[in-house]
Design a protein that fits this description.
- The chain is mainly alpha-helical.
- Helices cover 72% and strands 0% of the residues.
- It is built from 13 helices and no strands.
- The two termini are 28 Å apart.
- The relative contact order is 0.14.
Amino acid sequence: MNAFIKELYKYKYLIQELVVRDIKKKYRRSVLGVVWSILNPLLMMAVTAMVFSTLFRFDIKNYPLYLLTGQILFTFFAESTNFAMSSIIDNGGLIRKIYIPKYLFPLSRVVSSCVNLLFTFPALLLIILVTGQPLTLEMISFLIPLFLFFFFCLGVGLILSTMAVYFRDMFHLYGVLINLLSYATPIFYPEKIVPAQFILLLKLNPLYYFFKAFRMSIYDGVLPSAPLLFHCTLLAAVTFFVGCYVFKRYQNRFILYI
């Protein structure tokens, strides 16, 4: 672990440059730039809230805030894991030329997605103020599930980046999986409408626990419960270490396939 931390410190400027490059690439030729990170979730929230609150009439207090907390977290998950999945292949030319720890590429992609997530927080604060949601000190506890979710996404990203090198169809399969997860996760609907026979499937979805903890902080304004944080910590730790193991085991043969 000490060697890993020292290596991260050694390459901290490279990580910074990779993150800046990814962010610049995302907003290249954009007139509004990072303002889109605020406008996009607000526009998506407004349209989705209008449709679902009118057609389905979900009985959710402050539905715009409930919806936005789910949308921005799912966007972070989808973006970070998709970007991490292609990171090794996209940087194949650089990997073939010089030695760079290969895990820096998926790591930088997840970090850049996390920065994009932080750009959306003014939109979240705006909705909190506009809808009159009470501000509490406990809201700051959202940093705990967000921190754990970062390592969960990084673990998934390491696994996907390894699989994509050997199995290019992973890009198409993961696109299907992301769509399934968007409906299997309580983003735009309340947990209580899920039929009893599907509750087990809901709780087998790892995203469910992170979303619930995040919403307890921001939406309910209370500290996430200890059992819930334990689930999040366990999921983040297991996924991260499995991702590290898989990536480390197969990284030496990446150069043969990229």
